[in-house]
Each structure stands twice: as C-alpha cells, then as structure tokens.
Hints:
Order of helices and strands of chain A: HHHHEHHEEEHE
Oligomer: heterodimer
Shape of chain B: globular
Strand content of chain A: 5-15%
Largest sheet of chain A: 5 strands, mixed
Structural class of chain B: alpha/beta
Distance between the termini of chain B: 64 Å
Structural class of chain A: alpha/beta
Radius of gyration of chain B: 27 Å
Strand order of the largest sheet of chain B: 14-13-26-25-24-15-16
Amino acid sequence: xxxxxxxxxxxxxxxxxxxxxxxxxxxxxxxxxxxxxxxxxxxxxxxxxxxxxxxxxxxxxxxxxxxxxxxxxxxxxxxxxxxxxxxxxxxxxxxxxxxxxxxxxxxxxxxxxxxxxxxxxxxxxxxxxxxxxxxxxxxxxxxxxxxxxxxxxxxxxxxxxxxxxxxxxxxxxxxxxxxxxxxxxxxxxxxxxxxxxxxxxxxxxxxxxxx
Amino acid sequence: xxxxxxxxxxxxxxxxxxxxxxxxxxxxxxxxxxxxxxxxxxxxxxxxxxxxxxxxxxxxxxxxxxxxxxxxxxxxxxxxxxxxxxxxxxxxxxxxxxxxxxxxxxxxxxxxxxxxxxxxxxxxxxxxxxxxxxxxxxxxxxxxxxxxxxxxxxxxxxxxxxxxxxxxxxxxxxxxxxxxxxxxxxxxxxxxxxxxxxxxxxxxxxxxxxxxxxxxxxxxxxxxxxxxxxxxxxxxxxxxxxxxxxxxxxxxxxxxxxxxxxxxxxxxxxxxxxxxxxxxxxxxxxxxxxxxxxxxxxxxxxxxxxxxxxxxxxxxxxxxxxxxxxxxxxxxxxxxxxxxxxxxxxxxxxxxxxxxxxxxxxxxxxxxxxxxxxxxxxxxxxxxxxxxxxxxxxxxxxxxxxxxxxxxxxxxxxxxxxxxxxxxxxxxxxxxxxxxxxxxxxxxxxxxxxxxxxxxxxxxxxxxxxxxxxxxxxxxxxxxxxxxxxxxxxxxxxxxxxxxxxxxxxxxxxxxxxxxxxxxxxxxxxxxxxxxxxxxxxxxxxxxxxxxxxxxxxxxxxxxxxxxxxxxxxxxxxxxxxxxxxxxxxxxxxxxxxxxxxxxxxxxxxxxxxxxxxxxxxxxxxxxxxxxxxxxxxxxxxxxxxxxxxxxxxxxxxxxxxxxxxxxxxxxxxxxxxxxxxxxxxx
Lengths: 211, 683
C-alpha cells in the first residue's frame, strides 16, 4: 500500500458502509434542495450525514474511505471528487478521533477573551498534549478551529456540535470533568446569560411602560 | 467581433475569446502553465498576467474575456514585474534538480524561468516535499516538482474520461493524487506526460534515457491502431528511444494512444534479422541469395493458381502493391488481406471506410455503435467521440457486450444479431432517434464482421444507415472502424481474391505470407511451401520454409492508410536490424530471381505505381470528404444474420499486435491491468 500518510490507506478502514434509515431520510431532504442533475452539490451535507451516522453507530465521528465511495455512488460523481472535498475541509475527520471532539476557537475575539486559557484547560483536564492529538483514554481529540461565529460569547469551545460559551480555565475543566462522567451539560453560555444578551441581565428597555 | 489592441497591434477577434487568445492572434506569446487550449480554463498558475488599460491590477489573460476597444500590454514594466513575482512563488517549492530531471531541456518552467526567473533565491525557509504517487507502469511521478497547474486532473476528467486524478488537501498541503493507490485506467495516459509542464509526470520507460537535444526526430505515422495518429519518432544512434504525437487536428488533435507510444521497445526484441531456409526439416540461417534461390526453385513451374499470398495488419502500401504485382506476374489471383476473416465488401470504398471522418464526428448529432469498443480499438478516435458527447445533445446507442465503460454514457440496446436485425427492419426504438437526427452516424466494428454471418452483419448495418437517414448527398454516416494501420491500405489496393473467389488459403502449393501475424498457422495444410516475410516471427514464421526479414514501421519510408481512407506517409527513423530490408525492396529482389522483374527500381517508381492502382495514393495527407449518393448496399441481404452476441476483437489492449506482444513495457501493462486478482494469486 501507499507510503503516503496523507492518503487514507494507512489507517485501518472498515470494508463496508451503508446508510441507515435516519441517514437515508436526511439525504433525501438534502438532495431535494438541488435541481435534478445537480445532486453533486449535496456532497458536503451528505458527508456530514456520514460523520454523524458513524458517531451514532460507533461512537466516533469520522468519515471512512468506503463511505466516501458510497457517497460518490449515491450522488453520481467520481470518487476522487468526494475525496477532494473531504480532504479540503478539516471538519471531516478522515481518521478516527476521540469520543468527544474538543474544538477550541482560536480566532481573534476568542483569543483576546482568553482562548489560550481554554486550550490550557483542555490539555490539563482531558490529558491531551496539543492540537491534533487524542487523549490516551480515547475520550478526547483536541482541535483548533477558525471562527465559530459566536464572538459575542467568546471564548468558545465546541464539543462535537454543541457550543459552550463564556468559558474560562475553571469552567472548561468542570465541563470536561462532566463529560468524563458521562454527563452532557446544557450547551450555551456557562455563566448563565440568555443567548447573547448582556452579562448580568438587560440594560435597556428595563422599564416597560404600563408595568 | 471585438477590436482589441495588443501592444499597439490592432486585432479583431470573436466575442467571448480570452485576452490570451487575442494576444496570440496579435502574435504575442504569453507564458502559461495551467492554460491548455484543449482543456477547460483553470486560471490558477497566474503566469499569463497582462496589463489592461484602466484595470487597476494585472489580469490573468487566460480567464479574462475580451471587450471591444480593450488595450492590452503584454510587455510593460507592470507585467514583467508581476510575472517575475509569480515565477518566484512557483520556484519557492520547486526543487533545483533540473540536472537529474527528465523534463530538462523541454520544460516549460525551465524555459520561462530563463525569461522571468531571478538569478538567486530569496527564500530561506524549508521547502515542502511531496511523496511520489503510483500511477501505473507508464507514468513516473516526482510530485515535489509539481506546480499544481491541474492540467493532468483536467485531462483525465475531460479528454480521457477517467476522473481518477484530483487535488486533495489544500494550501501548502495540496497534492495531485489518485488518493487510492491505483494505476490510471486510461488508454491515453501517456498524454499526461506531454501536458505536464514540468517534470512531475514523466515517462517511466524513458526515465534517465536521453536528453532532447541528443535525439534525431523523424515524422511518422502510428500503425498500431487504425486512427493513423501522426507521430514523431525520437532516435539516437539507430535506436528508437521514444515516440511522441504530432498535432493534426483532422486526425489525432495532439493525443496519442498508449500502445502506439510505449510499445516501441518491442521493435528491438524477437526480431528477424537474417534470412532463414528450411533444410532437412529445420530452419537454418541462410544468405539472401540462398533464400531467393530456394523460393525460385520451389515456385518454378508451379501454375499461378497454386500460389497464394496473404498480407497482415501492419504492412505498408508499397510492400502490398509490390506483392500484388509479383503475384499477378506469377499468374496468381489468390490474394487475401482479411486474416481475421472479416467479411468486408471491397466493391465500393465507402463499404469499408470511416466515411464520416474523425473530425466529422464533431458534426454528428446521433451515434450508433455496433460490435465495437472504440475505447480499446482506437482510443484517440474514442476521445473525439467523448468530446462530441460532452458537448451534449448526442444520443449514443450501443450494440455489444453490456456494461462497457466507453468513457461516455451510452444507451445499451442489446448484445448482438437480434438487436441489429430489429434496427435493420426499423422496428427498434433507437431508429426513431436516428431518424430524428440531422447528421446521424454509425460505427461498425471490424470485429463484428469476423464471424460466419459477417456479410449479413455488414448488410444489416448498411440497411440501418440507408433506412434512417444516415446516407445523404452531403453526409455519410456509415463507418467501419478498423483495428490496425495496414488494414485499409490493403483494401484500397484490392488485395482480395476476385469476386466469388475462394477466401481460404487451402489447396495451394505455395503461400507468401507478408507480415501475417495474427494468422493461425494451423490453417495452412501440411506440404504447402510457406514463405514468411516480416519483422517479428510468431507462429507463422515458425511454420515457414523460407523467412525473409523485413522492416517495421519505423524502419522504412512507407505509406499508410488510416480507417478514414486518409493516405499518410511515415519516414525512415532507424535502419532495419541486421540483414533485414524494406519490404518492397525484398519483393523487388525476389521478382528478379523468379524471372518476373517488377518494373520499379526506386521509391518514386513504387509510389507512381500506387497512384496508378488507386488515385488516392497520389495525394498523401489529403482526404476528400464525400456524401453518399448511392444508397444501395453490399451484395446479399441480412437473412443469414444470427442472433449470436458480438464478440469484441481486442481482449488485451496492451498486447493486440505483434510489436506490442514483443514489448516488455506492454507486458508489464498487461500484468497490471488484466486480472489483478489472478496476478496476486500467482505471486
């Protein structure tokens, strides 16, 4: 086999992949968004469907090569076109990761608000040495990601698809400890503010006429 | 039309062409790496930057459409500076290994670096290195040299029709790869070597063999399929080192099939390089005089009708006409060139030619393929069909084995005779498609005629053409696709028995085999005196009583006729090995011994004789396109048509002819591509 670590050949790969009923339903919806004959446009959302199905079935969110071939066949495109897309976007994990994918936002607003602390907390609490690594117990994989679009509540850590916001070192450690215990804390701001409303409650429109 | 001024030169170009094309129309050369006129525009190398008046920054001319009144500057300070910058970036990760690179001397990057490169590098950081990829036995990859122009990706997807190459990852980590390790499954893969502007994709058999300036270049014609690809044979000290295509838009554009390109090492192996004569039951080395003497002794006194002659698939027109004249002088009319048994009707040339012409495929608007796999039988012609198919509105019906990958979508109609009968009597649904088209065409494979009811297949196919508007005064949609470069020449020269004559070569006392290699020697009865003349000895040579060593296609000035009926000339690139000689000269010498001296002593004489036999030989390179005014078909109806499925004539593309069967490179391809499971089991 290839000596090239950038291709998927080095990693033990499953030999078989088939969409389950839930994925089938999702794909049907996605493909309908595009005009007939342009179903190849659905490749990115369908790859996400694959990744979620893998998480449901094996507990690990990743896209095996055989699944990319299945996607190619389903969307009537050449397999290499799927490989190109899947390798271009880092959101697709082409090798198995930990059970929880810790994605630290390192873009300027989060960084200014202390993403370095979040990163340090992840390393300490999850037992990961650095970005791109998986903890020895196989629970956590740590990645640095670009802007998650939640700058108002910076710094942000995405665990799989859930955002945890307004973090600092201690709250990140608490979050990871909870994940270790098998709990799934409620996503959103950890300091209890409502969505992106001001910290400490409303500042304007406080006196509503007639009340 | 748009009026564009390029460096002060005013040119008028059609609307929608690119600035680069306008510059070329004005005679200005624009450097480029990713742009290729036969591929889609990528616009990613940025080398073709030009300045346009009122544009704030340089523009990539390959991807920018012209506008009326545009003023373009191709050599301003801004342009030079921009291109120098692009070049510096391209060279950041490009290794300085030109002295050991096979592209050296014919490398676009090397050439353009002479114009736009700096004499030193300002780059002090680490260069990236990329692992080499496996792409099969023909293509060697050194991927660190890749500048990611994506020409190869576009060629594979667009022209070859095998989307197996892609660019994975991104930015600094972008790589051109097949991702899954595999050999490219294309019969046109050698063209990747030509279109790669750097030394990332090079020829594996040619690796470290030679430098371009050491080579002698000879124009010739590829005869290993019937397309008639124009080629250039590169030689050094009497040895063919590589074969490249020449551009001919009417035939091969600028592509070439792998078998023609890579099987030349077969020209050096298993050659007949001296005459042999059978004495005491064993073939023994002999001199030319002894060989001719043995022939003269045996043929002396034989009546003409006891002598026969068969020509093979790779024989040039000069040799065929000489053999025909010799046989006529000896009083024999037992001539045959259809060694595969194909029931070809030679009574009219349009019964056996590719009448639509190769370039004409692009004008057609419906296609029916019968009993042929053009992808394997004529890969370059197939690329033309694919080009037409990708342009859209081109329904393609296919009669033959199910599930073939022709590199374009096709409508599988059926397996064989039964479907053809339905098409011929007009009851098949695809007849509607053909009738609705303005310029429909059909391609009948020569292999479909090589069966007992071959004549009925031909008659039925003609009937399909005649009944469905394929034959019009200004359009001829009936096409026979031949397999090898010598087949049509023999038909044009009428190397066939007289009408109604016996086609089997039995009942003869002497048989002259000229390059007949696909021929089953067991068909020759014991006691027949066999003369084999050719360049590679296979079974027919082993059966021979006298062997006369001839010249292969690169070793003679010769005339070839492609499947369209286009006469083209190849030139001698190297001399034949040992005592081997050009074939018409051998026949001329033999005629002297037989007391039937042929009336020509030089090449001009033979060629004058060719033109006398068939006027098309007077006009090499030229092809007159004809419509069809006489729709009456070949003799005999298609009542005898059996329901049997069509069997494709070429099962092993890489070893389909005598030269490629002697080639190590082609043997390696066959091992790679055919039955890989069986190969692994054997190892």
